[in-house]
Each structure stands twice: as structure tokens, then as C-alpha cells.
Amino acid sequence: MNSHLISFQLNTMPVSVETTPDARLIDVLREHFRLTGTKEGCGEGECGACMILLDDRPTLSCLVAIGAIDGKRVITIEGLRETPGFAILAQAFNDAGAVQCGYCTPGMIMIAYALLRDQRDPDESSIRRAMAGNLCRCTGYAMIVEAIRLAATRRGQSW
Ligand code: FES
Ligand code: FES
């Protein structure tokens, strides 16, 4: 397949990359832009480690071809770090003991950010539903649910 110039917004910056349109978004983020906070677990849409926001919607970057994002907006965990919401979520994950090996954490924080953006005060079942596509081998999930509840109580009007 021939290379094309693909242009999109990445963490608020306009960017372009010359690549084949079927290249996976996760590979372009990690290898071309060196944004290695986005993790690859399964590579098959099953684990949530590669979660990013695509036009504000949680999206698995291992399943998205770069050709499909021309003109769209991508936010990775590095972009989220610039927001007040990230600091509150990171502290809540830390305080609740929700980070062990940390491999799932960027994807968990992306999904938590989107959930709390859309719901002011999600209950446990809403949190578990939102996280259903994000796997964690270490924590047993209870501490992650607790972290998201904690962030919901602390965030004020942050996001
Ligand atoms: S690496 Fe994308 S869902 Fe697992
Ligand atoms: S903290 Fe290790 S996979 Fe979740």
C-alpha cells in the first residue's frame, strides 16, 4: 500500500505523518510520535490498555487504522496530563492503591476521565460498566472502582 500524508490533531497540536493508511494508530503514536504512555496489551481489542480519546470518545487505538483519523482529534494519556482532571485521577489512583504494575493504568485513567466527564456522580455499577473493556491482572478492580469514586468526590468543577 502506498504512503499517504495523514493530518490530525494530537493532544491539541496539529500534526501530520506520512504512512500507509492501514498502519495502526497505536504504532504511529508509540513509534512515530514516541507517545509510549499508550500501552499495547492484547493487540486485539480485548484489554483496553491502548485506550485513547478519538474525537472525545474512548477508543482502542490497536483497532484503528491511521487512515481513518485524518482530520480528527486524538488525546493520549500524555495530553490528559495537561488537564486538572489528570492530577485528581492520578492522586485518587495512588491513594486507593489502584496502581500495582501500572500497565493498565493509562487506559483506566482514560476511561475514568471520559466517564467522569459524562457523569457527575457515577455509582459502582456505572463505573464497572464503563470499565468492562479494561482488564487489570493485578488489583482485582475494587481499588480501581474506589479510585474513580474518590476522584468523583474530589474533582469539584475540574472537568
Ligand atoms: S492492546 Fe488494544 S485492546 Fe488490548
Ligand atoms: S495494575 Fe497491573 S495490570 Fe492493572
Automatic annotation (TrEMBL):
Q: Name one Pfam family in it.
A: Fer2_2
Biological source species: Desulfofustis glycolicus DSM 9705
SUPFAM superfamilies reported in the protein's UniProt record:
2Fe-2S ferredoxin-like (SSF54292), CO dehydrogenase ISP C-domain like (SSF47741)
The record's listing under PANTHER family reads: OXIDOREDUCTASE WITH IRON-SULFUR SUBUNIT, XANTHINE DEHYDROGENASE IRON-SULFUR-BINDING SUBUNIT XDHC-RELATED
Highest taxon in the source lineage: Bacteria
Residue ranges constituting the 2Fe-2S ferredoxin-type domain according to the UniProt record? 4-80
Task: Specify the protein name.
Answer: Carbon-monoxide dehydrogenase small subunit
Q: Name one GO molecular function term.
A: metal ion binding
Please indicate if the UniProt record lists Ribosomal protein as a keyword: no
Q: Which Gene3D superfamilies match?
A: 3.10.20.30, [2Fe-2S]-binding domain (1.10.150.120)
Enumerate the UniProt keywords alphabetically: 2Fe-2S, Iron, Iron-sulfur, Metal-binding, Oxidoreductase
